[in-house]
Amino acid sequence: MLEMTEYIAPKFKKGAFNCPHCGAFAHMKWLSRDDLVYFQATCAYCSKYSLWRVTQTATDHDHFTFPTEGEMLYPNCGSAPLPIKDMPEDVKNDYEEAARIFIQSPRGAAALLRLGLQKLCIHLGEEGKNINADIRSLVNKGVFSGQVIQVADTLRITGNNAVHPGQISDVDFDRAAAKMFDLINFIVKKAITEPKELDELYQLMPENARNAAEAQDKKNSKP
Hints:
Blueprint: E1 16-18, E2 25-34, E3 38-43, E4 49-59, E5 65-74, H1 89-101, H2 106-123, H3 131-140, H4 146-163, H5 170-203, H6 207-221
């Protein structure tokens, strides 16, 4: 089972969700001067706000009209989670562009995220010419585990379907494309963040102990 933190996407009039500014799951305070036009949701954690436009209303039996649906206008990041901190800059650029266009074009977003995965493979030492070969190579090198390869394959196949429609039904495609943001964050965490954190912990060990451990490793690796 993938160990991904549950992400609650921003939703109109929802009491709490992951803030599009700070990423924290927090209570949202909703305010409006005109209930049928615009709303402002302020994050209880970072105090920054998102701006929403009413897109659908309903009328009750007392002829009272109230908003039922809305879209986020600001910040222009769609409903995607924030990119993980250690994401390489060029991958992050594709990720953020995909987030901005996802609502209007899930296929365009999926294609951008597939491109981001290809660039990520280059950052991890691969050629970037054949994404399928790169993924398998990273598994052979121990950079990707069997679990991560399933995630990478999901990204690759969904991204391929964005430019070669028909392999996945439209309903399944939209569902898979929405999860691609979580998946690429997961890969960055497993392939970049966690190894960096482990190395930082290792460097806290006394130098003599590290040297002894490395010498033992070299001895054990000899045929």
